[in-house]
Amino acid sequence: MLMNGAAFAQAAAECGEIQKTLQERKDLVAKANVASNSKKKMTPQEACGLFGKLQANGAAGLKWITANKEWCSIPDSFADGFKADHEKVSGIRAKVCSVAAQATKMEAQARAQAQNGGGGGLLGGPGLTGSFKMPQGAL
Fold it and tell me: Cα dihedral angle (69, 71, 75, 77), rounded to 10 degrees?
């Protein structure tokens, strides 16, 4: 099949659209790597948001790859690798967001307990009350 110049240019432009998704993915992964190596760690909520963006990016990339695999001659190895990476990110996101939800719940419980006058003790109980006398004499 021969393509005229306009059709070939259109195909090349369509096949290049994945580059934007791949660059966005690269930037998100770099952001995650910087956060994991920095002294100031991300909160679980921030990590959940970042992995949510990464998962959305992967879903968009998979959709594009599926729709354009034949037309753009995308190798099976690339498509399979992208899919495996996306599934890995989805699993990590589920874990991170679960931790974020648990942390949010615990923070809310701690605030509620503090507002109700509870807490103060080391293990969240009412704490110790009363006095404690030091023994007299030689120790």
Answer: 0
**C-alpha atoms less than 13 angstroms from C-alpha of 109 in its C-beta half-sphere:** 7
Token pair recorded at residue 96: 């991170």
Tokens of 39: 């002294």
d(CA 86, CA 79): 11
Residue with tokens 């059709």: 7
The pLDDT tens digits of the residues spanning 50-68 come to: 999 999 999 999 999 999 9
Torsion 109-103-59-22 (CA) sign: positive
Its sign, for the CA torsion 28, 34, 40, 43, is positive
Average pLDDT in the 61-78 region? 92
Q: 135 — phi, psi (to 5°)?
A: -65, 145
Task: Give the max Cα distance, the chain.
Answer: 104
Q: Answer whether 21's CB lies under 8 Å from 64's CB.
A: yes
